[in-house]
Amino acid sequence: MREPSNPSLLAPLARKTGSRIVFIVMDGLGGVIGDEPTALQRSTHPHLDALAAESALGRCLHVADGITPGSGPGHFALFGYDPLDLEIGRGLLEALGLGVDVGSEDVAIRGNLCHIDADGNVTDRRAGRVATEDAAPIFKQLQGGIADLEGVDVEIHPGLQYRFAAVLRGNDLHGLVGNVDDTDPQVEGKPILAAHARDAASGHAARVADALGARAQEILAGGEIANAVLLRGISGRPPIMTYPEMTRLTSCCIAAYPAYRGVARMLGMDIKWDVASTASIADEVDVLEQAWGEDYDFFFLHVKATDSAGEDGDEERKAKVIEAFDEQLPRIRALEPDVIVVCGDHSTPGPMAGHSWHASPFLLQGPWSEADGGTSFDEVACDAGRFGGRFPAMGLIRLAMANAGKLAKFGA
Amino acid sequence: MREPSNPSLLAPLARKTGSRIVFIVMDGLGGVIGDEPTALQRSTHPHLDALAAESALGRCLHVADGITPGSGPGHFALFGYDPLDLEIGRGLLEALGLGVDVGSEDVAIRGNLCHIDADGNVTDRRAGRVATEDAAPIFKQLQGGIADLEGVDVEIHPGLQYRFAAVLRGNDLHGLVGNVDDTDPQVEGKPILAAHARDAASGHAARVADALGARAQEILAGGEIANAVLLRGISGRPPIMTYPEMTRLTSCCIAAYPAYRGVARMLGMDIKWDVASTASIADEVDVLEQAWGEDYDFFFLHVKATDSAGEDGDEERKAKVIEAFDEQLPRIRALEPDVIVVCGDHSTPGPMAGHSWHASPFLLQGPWSEADGGTSFDEVACDAGRFGGRFPAMGLIRLAMANAGKLAKFGA
Fold first, then answer.
1. Cβ contact A402–B66 (<8 Å)
2. Which residues of A touch B68 (CB under 8 A)?
């Protein structure tokens, strides 16, 4: 079930028009059909049901039957990229999610503050899960002591708690390649590892990573909370066509969580940075309404709480999140977008308390979507919909663009 | 939804038998399910309905979800070729459609007679849309003055009105490659462009094209209607396996329009050249009946008027064309073909007045087709059919051949 490569297929067909697409990703939306009702089945969502009646329905697969997608691959598939072709480093996503741009010559790292003993063995991989505000002075110290290493600039960007992103800035002399293994030994009681380059081109980045680890130990020497750093997810930017290049869409991302902003940023979308990490769905729709006045034709709105509830095994709370979204839906529809998609990046069934491989329900409403005419939006209704129970997620963006009149004919 | 490559899959399995397949393409057959009935839904077609009751039904996708096929890609998919792998030049289709063979070493060009002013700027890209009979003496003049240029033979074949096909005949010394840009500046008031080769191998064809343009201006100098030519769609024959090689079918094409003959000719089918461009469906069935006495086992019958009506936004006229076809269907069935396929090369919904991405209805009747047992032939019935709403068009020829007993087992 491999899909065609959207970058090479869509780029020559995409055309700029005034129509607008709202693309709503409810994280982990899907459940598993079984004895217990899913969150979609147990919640009351009249506005979603009414929208479903005007929509074509289906359940989508992001990677392949039986494969449970992470959030990254799930989103890439929804935006039309084949997740099997894309290996995205966690360092890159962390940096992008913190609002730090990473260029094609740069390498990004996801770091932990940590603690080591006198023998150099790691005693705490997360520096006692230090609070964000207590970590701030430690990061200040680090930032003050590190500028360039091995001929390239190195930046430290604090994240939540013990987490940070480091960006190694490639330059004309040293374009960096980031195929480098973690220095994190993964278990406590072992020494920090030397950075191992997996290919010759990545040797320079490995040397910078080792120098960064050593310099951090000098700077933090004697620190009680943290006296070293672990470097993980060392990675460069993959050479992919950006979303604007592929689709000609002028896109904006409304998401509270850094990882999803990171995905959108990597693809070249504009990010609404003023969405707080604590933003409610209503807050996000406020931002959507404001952004409606701007020159965008694609609005990616991300709802996180469905997934968090599913991960906690709390199907009832997940149902409440769906109901909270449903209450906001009329505000979105009042904007009169030409096309609305409501989908998920993977399923997170409460009874499984984690991501799963089950195809994720979606609806697509547009002027030519061939509505199925059902009266509900849940896994069973979507299985029975036009796009069936195994629709390749990579096709969604094509259908959305086609309905919005944004794709020219293929071939004469 | 990428399908296996039929050329490599089918060629070793295809076997010659006496059974016969009638493969009817109603151009742009499909509509869009919505508020208005589609042409299939609003027309009365008792014979199609009766055939549908004995058939397996579905709607087929020619390229991918959301992608609107041109007629070329749509037909290639129906004949089992992946349209994503095939780039077919317009010059090639024009020449083939006029009945001119183009070999693997040749390059074909779609030309316009045009008019230029004293400064060499194009004043009329279509020579006043000169009538075919008025263009005839101009083409005679051209043909008389051009024989070989830059070491290869050059032929001029008149088309309708100002159009012609030029074929540059490669030879043992000069095998030609046709990756050459148009000399047509696309707008009036600008000079004719030099032929630009996109790769080194195409340099010779570009030189011939330039020589052809220059020689045409010498021959036509002072001409009132036309005094120059524009060269477009310069292209060679793609290196594909022919239809007879892939399927072992002895095929004939019954089509009134040059473009569809061009597609069939490129694939190596026999063309029934005596079908007039004004032929009715009944006229085409006359030719089918005559051809039935010959040694063919695959009959491609093309109906154009469904698409034309859809393009004009006239769903009522499209319905009438379907009814006109339905009246002829008993004559086709009276021939007792082993397998009948009725399909479209894409959808052309009247309300959209153009090609669309919506999957196109088809039926397949054969001795082992697992009939769905429905009682109608339209988009809704086909969605509900055995092959569902998203059947890959490239699979149709496999099913037709299988039902006709023309495919051996794959593997031991």
1. yes
2. 402, 407-410
Which has the minimum average pLDDT: A169-173, B70-74, B109-113, B185-189? A169-173
Q: Is B394 an interface residue toward A (CB < 8 Å)?
A: no
Of B397, B79, B409, which Cα lies nearest the Cα of B242? B79
Assess contact for B403 and B339: CB atoms under 8 A.
yes
Q: Write the burial class of residue B19 (CB in 10 Å: 0-12 exposed, 13-18 middle, 19+ buried).
A: middle
Long-range pairs of B211-220 with CB within 8 A, sequence gap ≥ 24: B211/B149, B211/B150, B212/B109, B212/B146, B212/B149, B212/B154, B212/B166, B212/B168, B213/B183, B215/B145, B215/B146, B215/B149, B216/B142, B216/B146, B217/B116, B218/B145, B219/B141, B219/B142, B219/B144, B219/B145, B219/B146, B220/B138, B220/B141, B220/B142
Instruction: Tell me the torsion sign for CA atoms B263, B266, B267, B273.
Output: positive
End-to-end CA distance of chain A: 26
> Of the candidates A388, A399, A408, which has its C-beta nearest B66's C-beta?
A399
B6-86+240-403: which CATH number, 3.90.320.10, 3.40.720.10, 1.10.8.190, 3.40.120.10? Answer: 3.40.720.10
Alpha carbon of A374: minimum distance to chain B alpha carbons (Å): 14
> Which residues from B are below 8 Å from A393, CB to CB?
none
Which tens digit of pLDDT belongs to each residue from B57-87? 999 999 999 999 999 999 999 999 999 988 7
pLDDT band at residue B173 using 50, 70 and 90 as cut-offs: confident
Interface touch B68/A395, C-beta < 8 Å:
no
CA B5 → CA B77, B83, B85, B89, B398, distances in Å? 11, 11, 10, 21, 11
ipTM of this complex prediction, to 2 decimal places: 0.85
Hey, what are B299's tokens?
């009959």
| Element housing B148 (H / E) | strand B148-149
CA distances from B70 to A2, A126, B88, B165 (A): 22, 58, 11, 21
State the amino acid at position A143 in one-letter form: Q
Contacts of B72 in chain A (CB under 8 A): 411-412
Query: Whole-model pTM?
Result: 0.86
Crossing angle (nearest 10°) for helices B258-266 and B71-78: 40
CA distance B31 to B396: 20
Nearest to residue A330, comparing CAs of A289, A368, A294? A289
A-to-B residue pairs, Cβ atoms closer than 8 angstroms: 86
B83 neighbourhood in chain A, CB within 8 Å: 410-411
Of B198, B148, B152, the residue nearest B178 (C-alpha):
B198
Give residue limits of the domains in chain B.
Answer: 6-86+240-403, 93-236
Which residue from B273, B367, B376, B335 is spatially nearest to B44, judged by alpha carbons? B376
CA angle B282, B329, B364 (to 5 degrees): 130
Task: Please provide residue B141's backbone torsions phi and psi, each rounded to the nearest 5 degrees.
Answer: -60, -50
The DSSP letter of residue B197 is B
Coil vs helix vs strand at A357: coil
Q: Do B63 and A398 touch (CB under 8 A)?
A: no
Candidates B69, B72, B389; nearest CB to A386: B389
Provide, as residue numbers in chain A, all residues whose Cβ is less than 8 Å from the Cβ of B33: 370-371
Which tokens is A280 given?
């409610």
3 state DSSP class of B285: helix
Tell me if chain A has a CB within 8 Å of the CB of B73: yes
pLDDT digits (tens, 9 = 90+) for A230-258: 999 999 988 889 999 999 999 999 999 88
Enumerate the β-bridge partners of residue A156.
Answer: A166
Token pair recorded at residue B306 = 């469904």
Tell me the three state secondary structure of residue A96: helix
C-alpha count within 13 angstroms, C-beta hemisphere, residue A166? 32
Residue of A nearest to B260 (CA): A412
- Residue B357's closest chain A neighbor by CA? A402
